[in-house]
Each structure stands twice: as structure tokens, then as C-alpha cells.
Amino acid sequence: MLYIKNKSAIIYILLIIIIFIFAIILRSVVYLNMKPLWHDEVPIALTVIDNGFDSILKNTNLQKAPPLFWMLTKFFGSLGDYNELSLRFFPFLCSIISVFVFYFFTTEVLDKKLSIVISNILFAVNYRLIYYAQELKQYSSDVLFVCTALIFFNRMVNKPFNKKNSIICLLFSSIIIMFSLPSFFVIVGFILYKMFIFIKKGKNDFWSCSESDNKIKINIQLKYFLLFNIIFAGISLLYFNEFFADLYNMEIMYLSEYWESGFLDFFNFFLILKSLFTYFFYPNATFVFELILFSIGFIYFFFDKKHITKLMLFSFLVIAVASNLKWYPLYERVALYLIPAIVTAIAKPFDILKHGSLKISILFFLFILSIPMYLFPQYYIKFSHKNIFTAFDGRTTLDFIKSKHNPNQKILINIASFGIFEYYKRQLNFDSVTYEIFDYRKINKDEFFKYLDTNKNGQTWIYYVFSGKENEERIWLDEWRNENKDL
Known about the structure:
Layout: H1 2-32, H2 42-50, H3 67-79, H4 84-87, H5 89-109, H6 113-125, H7 127-131, H8 139-157, H9 163-179, H10 183-201, E1 207-209, E2 216-218, H11 220-254, H12 256-260, H13 269-280, H14 288-303, H15 307-324, H16 339-347, H17 349-352, H18 358-370, H19 377-381, H20 394-404, E3 410-414, H21 418-427, E4 434-438, H22 445-453, E5 460-463, H23 473-483
Parallel strand pairs: 3-4, 3-5
Antiparallel strand pairs: 1-2
């Protein structure tokens, strides 16, 4: 029996090591492919290039991200002359570290080795997590720091809330929100759960009432907890006040339709779940089987006695409220930090059932149906393709123009491509070039054609690598090119 147990442990350790290696390889390959920066990344790139450490936080445009994300992106970018690899190094580093942190997270949520292995496989091969390992955005760091926050506060729940631990919690909370905005939801979830514990334990444990003077005497732990809440509330108000004001004025006001589908209410609850699961588990075609497994695991969380599952449930509540109040949308990439909790919930049912039973066979069948694409080698081979994520190649396009360009020629740039042009103009040392920006939003189709006609003199290049999501500019340009095939 001892031999069998040791053998089982060895197999488990080997499986986890293989998962780690596989996850790191997948993320490293796509990162080293050095995909050209695209429209969503260049505002961050240009901001960190054009601003010093002291002024970088004042020039964040629409790309709202935590302060330490900006600072570390600036630091690593400066080490590599702000090329694609150096700018994306911090998200890549976070994606690698999150593989290990997620494992420790699953060991605290799940009981059985089978469940832990299943959840770690899902995390390792997840398309979205692999993609954002090479994207100059904060979503990989959100995944890492939300996981870290859940582990940290799980360890703190059972510890006495004395002076030392209240200071540790306050320092940790104040620092981690500078790395990741969604970690705030976990902190508030911890506060609510701790309040729930205080109330549940109730009188005599944390407060008492003196019959002689009718005064309530509060336990020292509760005093420190209240003090922690007051100080952290003050820090949060100072930190988030300007952030959410800017976010609302710039993004919510101008992109309200874009974010609207991520704001939760009673009527769109299922639609948001469908959207999130379809996005998180791409390219698997159906979301139904993942949702079934998640729902079973989520229900089990209510009956689980572990503090971390209760902490997750309270955090889910805070996230739902924030979405309902239109503070933070439950929308695709900005909700990427939910993947660790969702994947763990999907694996949770395997914790409960006995091996060899009919029920666990049904669960495995549902599990296989939920991830069919992960079973094919082609899914993994395509990550080695250099252009797997390249939809807008501003680097190659401008390099080609540079190789053919002469000083008498000018470049017409559509406004949505200008940031990409500006970044690669600097990277390719293509500074002595005459260019002009055209904005489709200010002209109609006839004016657009007339504008292009005046420039078809053999001395003009058109630099067009990205267009806005909802415009006819691309159709107009294709139509104009078809009418001018001799050019």
C-alpha cells in the first residue's frame, strides 16, 4: 500500500511538472514570435516612451491601467529600447508566474489530485491566457494578482486580527491595488467575509454589554478590523476617485454601447454568462457543458467549509454589484481575472464524487464535450505559427513603404492607424517622411473618394492597417481601389 501511494504521488508530481513546462512553452513561443503592436497597444507604448517616470501617470489617455503596471512597463521597456519584447515583458512575466501561483491556489480550493490536475490543465492551455501573455495590456497581471490576493486573504482569515496582522493586511491591500484594479474586489470580499465571521461568532466573542453602565465593550480584534476598514476606505477613495471619474468621462460616456453588454442586471444575467464562457473557452464551440460543470462546482462552494471558497463567493458578490452599478464591466478581456475561479469551479465536482462511480463517468463525459479543441494537436501546433495573432501588421507594411519610398513622396494615414504608424516610424528610424492624416469621421463617401483622387499622382502611399470597429471606411477604400485598378 505504501508503494502504491508513493507511486501515485510520483505520477501526480510528474503530471504537474509537465503541465508547468507545457504552459511555459506555449506562453514563451507566442511572446517570442514578437507580434507587431496593434491599435490597442500603441497608446500604452507611446505613453511610456514619451513620458518619464514622474509624469507617466498623468498621460494615460484612454488606456486606464494600474500605476505599477505603467511603471514596470516603462522600466522593462527602457531596458530594450522600447521594442515589442521589452514593452510586453511585464505581462509575459506575470503570465508565467501565474502558472505557479494558480497551482497553489488550486491546492487550497480543491481536495483531490485529479481535480487539481484537471484545473491546471485547463489553465495551462487556455487560449485567452496564452494570448494575453504577449499583449501589452494589464489583463495577465490581473489574473496573477487576483489569484495572489485570494491566497493571501485565505491565510489571513483564521489569524487573529491584531495590530501586526492589521498592518500586514493594510500594506498588502494598498500595494496590490496599484498592480491590479480587480484585486480590489477580493479585498472587499475579504472585508465582507470577515464581517460575516464577526457577526456569526457574535456576542461574547467580539463584543459584550456591561449591565452596570450599558456600554458596549468591543474586542481588540474588532477594533483593529474597524480601523483597517476606515484607513483602507480612505486610501481607496483617494486612489479610485480620479480613476473612475476619468474612466466614466472618457470610456463609459464615449464607449457606452461597447461596455453595456458587460453591465449586469436581472434580465441579462444569462447572456453575460454565455458571453464570458464563450470568450474564455474559445475556440471550443459550445459554452453549455462548461457552464453545467461550473454551476455544479459553484453550488458545491456554498457547502464547502473552506474559507477560500467563502472568500470567492463574497468576491463574486462584490464583482456582480460593481458590474450592476456600471463601475466595472463583466466583459470579455477585462474580466479575464475570473478564469482561475471559473476553472477551479469546473474541476470542483471531481472533488466530491468517488472514483469509478457512474456520476464521475458522466462528469468526465461532460468535461470532454466542453473542451474538444484542446484534444487535437493542431490546437497547440498553431501557437508556433509566427502570425497566429497578427491581424494588423503595421511593422512589415511600413518597412516595405520605407524600402520603396523617395523624399518626394508622402504617406496618407487613416486616423485609426496613426498610432501604429507613429510607433513604427520611430522603431524603423523613418523620421524624414512627409505624411498626412485623413479622418473618415469628418467626411462622407464622396468627399473620401475626392480626397483620394487628388492624391493619385504616383507620389503617394496609403498606410492603412487598422480601422475603427463600426465604420464604412474599409468598404470605401476597397471600392475606390477597385475603381482605380490601374494605380
